[in-house]
Design brief:
The complex is a heterodimer of chains A (257) and B (251). Helices cover 89% and strands 0% of the residues of chain A. Chain A is mainly α and 257 residues long. Chain A has one domain. Chain A is elongated, with a radius of gyration of 21 Å. The two termini of chain A are 38 Å apart. Chain B has a 6-stranded mixed sheet, sandwiched between helices. Helices cover 40% and strands 24% of the residues of chain B. Chain B starts with a strand and ends with a helix. With 251 residues, chain B is α/β, with parallel strands linked by helices. The radius of gyration of chain B is 19 Å and the shape is globular. The chains are: A mainly alpha (257), B alpha/beta (251). At the A-B interface, helix 4 of A face helix 2, strand 6 and helix 4 of B.
Chain lengths: 257, 251
């Protein structure tokens, strides 16, 4: 193992430890201290409404590419009308949650880490503590709850747009019978796929919020520290999402199928 | 005795910052802590409110040792303090009104009209009437410190802590802040602890001065005694004369 890989592993496991402690404070705060719903709604606007265009564009082009690529292979075995089913199952259970989470990690995770990191280096977090306010109650809980509430909606919109875009490509560009295309999609996409995708979005949303808040709250001093915290928030949350996705897929397939 | 520090030691890695600090503060006292930059004054101040935990020793607030308490146990104790930070540390995302009313808004015990009235009152005390809707980025350094002070006094704390209240201000703004601190202490009858290396300010805002030197309390005297001291360390600091050894190092 090279020294940089060792350092990365050490930082990743260190982050997992800090994240666990942060989760302890987070759940204590959610259940024992009343959340301020006005702050949650503001974060929902920032995370959800402001990210919707990005995730919809991601979903649309993923659905279109998947449909066009699947058609090449499905056409060889005369299963053209099954392409939208593949797009749907792929988008609902895998690509939708993962790609949406990666886009949100890039846009929102970075913003959260930068905001909290700047607050830390300018002593605003210390000021918060002197004003008898726990930083987790004021800063982490609204972002965490907003992320949990908004991620399923963002993923659902990304998946819907992706399937519809795939349908348009299949029906209009590839001249596949639209009725069979739609029927097969409905027939082969079952509730387990939807449940798998929804469970994943909750977990990925929680990962983004916890990693970004942890990186921001523990940001090293100075402008360089804020930059590093921002980058690390995106990198670590993305990698954690990809690793978690693999294990969640194994577990959920066993539980739900 | 409202505050007591017993043999507090703190290291940052291999660097010893506090090496056994002991002192106590009576209710209503105006204490100033002086010492060279990087000598541990702000670190000591942060220990008093539990922002830092000592490696060993005790910090007693009203008889309760806060050194062993966790963040949540510290919250009600911190409610007894107000703190003015060196850079004011106003929340960028809130306007002046919401910054000042932060604690009152969080406590959700007061009606909007009551909060507005108290914000107006403390802004009047710090001489900044009518700036409720301004944003921290629109304020000068002196104004930010005044707003920081207004935020610290709105919930009527028992102890006010000031971290370098006049650093980074021009002499006129620094003078205004000194007068403001004296006025606030007299009007609210609070205990005040200020950390500074501005000797003019130290003489005016404190009725007792502690000098921190090499991680320990080197002197604990009245301002007059400090300014008349013939002790070489105190004399050099008060008159701004570098240690000949240190001077040689720089040269």
């Amino acid at each position: 193992m090279t020294s940089s890989a060792k350092q990365f592993a050490r930082e990743w496991f260190g982050g997992v430890g800090r994240g666990t402690l942060l989760c302890r404070d987070l759940f204590y705060s959610i259940f024992k201290v009343k959340p301020v719903w006005r702050d949650v709604v503001y974060q929902m606007y920032f995370i959800g409404v402001k990210s919707s265009s990005v995730v919809c564009i991601t979903g649309a082009f993923t659905g279109m590419v998947l449909c066009a690529q699947a058609y090449v292979e499905f056409h060889k075995i005369k299963m053209d009308t099954g392409v939208l089913a593949l797009v749907s199952v792929g988008m609902v259970s895998q690509l939708g949650p993962v790609l949406t989470s990666l886009m949100v990690a890039g846009r929102v995770g970075a913003a959260i880490a930068a905001e909290l990191g700047t607050m830390r280096v300018t002593e605003q977090i210390d000021a918060l503590r002197t004003l008898a306010t726990h930083p987790v109650d004021y800063l982490v809980v609204p972002r965490f709850l907003a992320m949990l509430l908004v991620m399923p909606l963002l993923t659902a919109s990304s998946v819907c747009v992706g399937i519809f875009a795939g349908f348009l490509v299949g029906a209009c560009l590839l001249s596949i019978n639209p009725t069979y295309l739609w029927y097969n999609m409905l027939h082969y996409t079952d509730m387990n796929d939807v449940m798998t995708g929804m469970i994943k979005t909750f977990v990925f949303g929680a990962i983004i919020a916890v990693v970004a808040c942890d990186k921001g709250l523990n940001c090293p001093q100075g402008a360089e520290g804020v930059g590093r915290a921002t980058t690390e928030a995106v990198v670590y949350s993305s990698i954690t999402i990809l690793i978690t996705n693999f294990f969640l897929t194994l577990v959920l397939n066993r539980v739900l199928v | 005795m409202i505050l007591e520090v017993r043999d507090v030691k703190k290291n940052f890695g291999p660097l010893p910052v506090l090496q056994g600090v002991t002192f106590s503060v009576e209710k209503g006292e105006a204490l100033t802590i002086i010492g060279i930059s990087g000598g541990g004054k702000s670190v000591l101040l942060k220990h008093l409110i539990g922002l830092l935990t000592p490696d060993s020793g005790e910090v007693l607030v009203g008889g309760i040792n806060i050194a062993g308490l966790d963040e949540r146990q510290l919250l009600p104790i911190r409610r007894r303090f107000g703190m003015l930070f060196q850079g004011a540390a106003l929340f960028d995302s809130l306007n002046v009104e919401d910054n000042i009313a932060f604690v009152l808004n969080r406590e959700r015990r007061y009606a909007r009209e009551e909060i507005d009235r108290r914000v107006e009152e403390v802004l009047d005390v710090v001489g900044l009437k009518g700036i409720q809707k301004k944003w921290p980025a629109e304020l000068s350094g002196g104004m930010r410190k005044r707003v920081g002070l207004a935020r610290a006094i709105i919930y009527q704390p028992e102890i006010l802590l000031y971290d370098e209240p006049t650093t980074g201000l021009d002499p006129i703004a620094a003078d205004a802040i000194d007068h403001l601190i004296i006025r606030v202490v007299q009007k609210l009858k609070v205990t005040s602890i200020a950390v500074t290396h501005d000797m003019r300010s130290a003489r005016r805002i404190g009725n007792r001065i502690l000098m921190l030197h090499e991680g320990r309390i080197y002197a604990d005297q009245t301002p007059d005694e400090i300014f008349k001291s013939t002790d070489p360390v105190i004399y050099r600091f008060v008159n701004g004369i570098a240690d000949p050894q240190e001077q040689l190092k720089y040269e």
